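check these tokens.
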Amino acid sequence: RGMDLIYLEKFPYFTLKDKTTYIETETGRWDRQAIKWMCICLMPIAVGYSIYSLIYSEFRGWYSFVIQTLAGFVYMFGFILLVPQLYLNYKLQSVEHLPWKALMYKFTSTIVD
């Protein structure tokens, strides 16, 4: 709903593009800013994690190291895509009040999933 699927004549044949109505809104502006800062903050941590695990962890081979590192990157990017929603809610004041128990339930549910 916030993106358009566009057909291309050459590879990769399809692309996703934000709708101009979303890009121009305040929500789109805050969303881009949150994702940018999360990437800037977490990319060095991800690179440091891969270097640390290469030095201090034991792997059966390079294939095992690459698979484990890529899995860590997938989890990190999932986190990067999750956090901007919290930032948006804070900046836009879109959530008046969330009870403490409900917040902890949502936090635990997010970590478990």
